[in-house]
Amino acid sequence: MARVIFLEDLCKGCLLCTQACSKNIIEQSDKFNKQGYKVVEIKKENLDKCIGCGFCSLICPDSAIIVYKTIKETENV
């Protein structure tokens, strides 16, 4: 399971992350940050669709996205 955190105060609403998302689940929200930019979000019903690829974080020019991916335990052979 993956988790994405958007640092809203750093987001400038460029929407590059929406284009980079391989699952097309990142979208512009109705919220504004302190600088007056519309920020991005993943709606609650789509949170489980995130695979933690990190493309959104890599393309963000303001480092406003943090991606956490759960590492699956492997069986010792």
Automatic annotation (TrEMBL):
The keyword Iron applies. Pfam families: Fer4_7 (PF12838). Keywords: Iron, Iron-sulfur, Metal-binding. One of its GO terms (molecular function) is metal ion binding. SUPFAM superfamilies: 4Fe-4S ferredoxins. Residues 2-31, 40-70 form the 4Fe-4S ferredoxin-type domain. InterPro entries: 4Fe4S_Fe-S-bd, 4Fe4S_Fe_S_CS. This is 2-oxoglutarate ferredoxin oxidoreductase, delta subunit. It comes from Desulfonauticus submarinus.
